[in-house]
Amino acid sequence: MINEFRKTSSLVRSIGFAVGMIIGIGLAAVLFQDYRHRVQAAHAQAQALADGAQRLLSARLHTIERAMQAVAANARDLASTVPAQAQALVADNLKGVMARHEQVESIVLVDAQGQPISAGDPEPSIRQWSGDVTRGADLRTGPLARHNDGWVMPLAVPLSDGGWVLVRLRQAEFQDVVDNLHAGPQDVAAITDRFGMIVARTGANAELTGKPVDMLFAPDDVRLGRRVSRIDGVERLISAAAPGRYPLWVGFGTASAAVVESWYPVVALTGALYLLYWIVLLYILRRIGRAERDHLRYVEQIETAERRFRIIFDKNPMPCWVYDVDTLRFLVVNQAAIDAYGYTRTQFLAMTLLDIRPAADEGALKAAVTNRDVRAAEKHPWTHRRADGSLLQVRVHASDIDFPGHAARLVVAEDVTERLRNERVLRHRATHDATTGLHNTDALLEFLDDDRRRSVGYELAFVQLRGLELISDTFGQAVGQDVLRVMADRFAALRGPDSAVAHRPAETFVLAILNNERRGEMLAALMRAVTSPVSVHGMLHVLEPRVGLAVHPRDGERAEKVLGAAALAAQMGNGAPGTWHVFEAAMAAASINRLKMAAQIRNALDQDTFIVHFQPIIRSRDGLIVSLEALIRWPLPDGDFVAPDVFIPLCEETGLIVPLGHRVLREVGRAYVTMAQAGFADIALAVNVSAVQLQRDDIVDAIRQTIADYHLPTGAIQVELTESAVIGDQALRAMDALKALGVPVHLDDFGTGFSSLAYLRDLPIDALKIDRAFVAEIDSEVRSASVCEAILTLGHTLGLHVIAEGVERESQAEWLIAHGCDYLQGFHAAMPMSVDDVIVFMQERRAARA
């Protein structure tokens, strides 16, 4: 044993020095890898900025391309329908496009040789650059050129007769893209074209515009991903975004010095920690040398004890040992015990029974040994602890034996860990929810129906967390499960001696308040738990809790009856978020009334009693009616109407919104045909589509069928979606399909939802509608005016039209017109009316304007 100890000491020294060398090499590798990761992260960030700028640039050019395509289509239609007035109408159209796109210096129709057809300057070089077109785009881009004392880029879209729609786009449009990238003080961005010319570069670099790309870097500097600027001599990490629809490249450079600036402190700290390791190692080796000397004095005694306590029962396949009843110290153990528990024989013989038991078992163990009751110890399983800290359940079989010099007992330990674990798993699965780990409602109801609990009474809070399924549908099942687990943890925190909780998939939790004196405290804690936003993966999710309360025995003798009453209170309650609703007998009647109303809605759909009214939307700059919003109305026999906010939510809850939406589409198709016959074929009709329709119905097919059935031209139908409706991949696919049909998409009630600006930027929409809640006080309340002004700026920056709804006063209209709102809708312009009345209204306005 002496030699073994010395070998161990020598081994520790060798391992210590070897580990030190390995750590040193590892730290060096980690530092190098960290440096590479920082460089890669900088490249990734630069690439992300370049890609973002490329998408923004493509979006702006795509907006201009659509406007040019519209001009081409309009010119073609006018030439075929009203050739005598075509030139004047096309000129007006060109002026309108110029007015909507401030960065367009000029727009002109030219022939195949670049000579102007409409008013404007020629473009003789158009034949040299118009033939190259990027996949998926009609837009041709020309070389940057001087025009009217400024730089412009010529853009062209073909006409059906071989001519072109020519737009000269100011270089400032491209400069704005690179100047607004969020970057460090020495970071730069640049845009180049397919002609190898610089279109724009970050900062005041006007002298670089139109110069060759070689001006940016030294021609002989060909290092991959890292270049030195010829402009300011700064070395940067370069990332470039390849062109998408349009042949323009966006490059972004991050200063190399900024990448490694925060790396040097890491190097210093790593060196300090490595030095500390050597100091600690030297201290340990010194202590080992001292321990080695102490060990030499006791080793002979230990070897003598080992020889004395070896016995022949070492071959038993089950763990066995003999222990001293008075001291509880192990006297001898077999090989099976060593294998099962992980202790060495030496360790076992230095331990007592208490060392393999949890501290909580100490009292029970001592009592069993003191009473000398062997059979009592065999009645239940005991918990033992292995050398690695893991626990196992054993059933002991013991017998007192004679052992020289000791009052001893022989123990055979049977491992029943797996059997007991399976029994616990089965019991747990029967009473707990697998996802949250909380008791299920069956277990809670069984607990509450206990005779003792029923005699005391209790109160149940039924909590329905609406929005969990929407989170899962939108962000994925994993995020939804994480949100559910956070809420489960909050409910678990409410559990105590005066309360019990349970979960019923998928959105329901139940809290049982067992102590009426703590009712107020428990309900306050419950409302804090369900109304606080949930932070998961860096995002805040706000759920819509519906809480209903019911009391035993007032609302039911059995717990199941009380739970049903609480659930009905939650369903029927319509108070503000953060409140609860106490069950009342009238709620049952109200629930029946809701079911009756749902049946009446079905009957109204079957009998086709719903009607559609239309409210005009006017263009603010000239007062012309440009479109009508279709609004569903449910007439009553007395001539009154059921309010839409009464039956629309019920339709969405019951799924009746789908056939109701189809009814609206049919009326819109008929209304358009009627208006076209009256001379108003240029008026579009807007239809509201709810989130439920997008989730439960193929609304795109329904609109496509309506267009086909009534032979509606492109743009005759517009679709209005709320912010909540456009969340998710399914909504985006539907919007893309609508755009492919030529159906404009408007974002309704903008400002009341939670869409991020990044998400809004990528939505295929044409216009924003400011919610009436902001318009109501726009002429008297500063905060409402500020919100509206911000929405107007955002919409126009994204190239979108902005419509204000709920305009009821002249002062509101004046404010909106003064701040550049494109369109107005509300009682100030016109009330909703039937299609016949709206035709008369438009005819009178047309006559008055004439």
Brief overview, please?
The protein is α+β, with helices and mostly antiparallel strands.
Task: Explain the overall architecture.
The protein has 850 residues and is an alpha+beta fold. Helix content is 48%, strand content 21%. The protein has 28 helices and 31 strands. It has an eight-stranded mixed beta barrel, surrounded by five helices. It starts with a helix and ends with a helix. 31% of the residues are buried.
Q: Which strand order do you get reading across the main beta sheet?
A: 23-24-26-27-28-29-30-31
Distance between the termini: 116 Å
Give me the secondary-structure category.
alpha+beta
* Strand fraction: 15-25%
What composes the largest sheet? 8 strands, mixed, barrel
Q: Estimate the global geometry from the Cα principal axes.
A: flat
Query: If you compute it from the alpha carbons, what radius of gyration comes out, rounded to the nearest whole angstrom?
Result: 40 Å
How many beta-strand runs?
31
Q: What's the helix count?
A: 28
**Percent helix:** 40-55%
What ranges have pLDDT less than 50 throughout 5 or more consecutive residues?
Answer: none
Mean pLDDT: 83
Topology:
Layout: H1 2-81, H2 83-100, E1 104-110, H3 126-129, E2 140-141, E3 145-146, E4 151-158, E5 164-170, H4 172-179, E6 188-193, E7 198-201, E8 226-228, E9 235-241, E10 248-255, H5 256-260, H6 263-308, E11 320-324, E12 330-333, H7 335-341, H8 345-349, H9 362-370, H10 374-377, E13 382-385, E14 391-403, E15 406-415, H11 417-431, H12 441-448, H13 451-456, E16 458-466, H14 468-475, H15 477-494, E17 499-504, E18 508-513, H16 519-531, E19 534-536, E20 539-541, E21 544-552, H17 559-572, E22 580-582, H18 585-607, E23 611-619, E24 625-635, E25 641-642, H19 644-654, H20 657-677, E26 684-689, H21 691-696, H22 699-710, E27 717-722, H23 729-741, E28 745-750, H24 757-762, E29 767-770, H25 772-775, H26 782-797, E30 801-805, H27 810-818, E31 823-825, H28 835-849
Parallel strand pairs: 21-22, 24-26, 26-27, 27-28, 28-29, 29-30, 30-31
Antiparallel strand pairs: 1-5, 2-4, 3-4, 4-5, 6-7, 6-10, 8-9, 9-10, 11-12, 11-15, 13-14, 14-15, 16-18, 16-21, 17-18, 19-20, 23-24, 23-31, 24-25
Helix pairs in contact: 1-2, 1-6, 14-15, 15-16, 18-19, 20-22, 22-23
